[in-house]
Amino acid sequence: MQILIDAIATKLLNSTVSEDVGGRCYYDTADSDGLPRLVYSIISAFPERTFSEHYHEVLIQFDLFSPVSAGRTAITTMYTDLIALFDECALTITGYALVWMKEQNLITMVEDLSALQDGTNLLFHWAVDFEIRVSLN
Fold it and tell me: pTM for the whole thing?
């Protein structure tokens, strides 16, 4: 799976969505609390076999975070740019052939990061799931 993670990181590098978050794109955990930011993780991965082919099905989630104070336009722009970059994209994965990468789901939330949960530090959190199918070359 590291090869897939690397391929996604490479595609994110210098992309519009990376610019939207000021380059704060992380795998699994954010290195800083800076906002806005994008954090992506593999949710599940499993093999799928037919009589003649071997596939890997991977569900990956991109979590987009933006302060509510920045307005809804910031988070919707991040989402739009993420979809433009990855939905039905071409992705080079060493040793594999990409069969598809497509958006599966979007969950939108508002979270309160303030210590007292008093609404003084609200942020938008949008979780975008993509299904990826790859096959061995």
Answer: 0.93
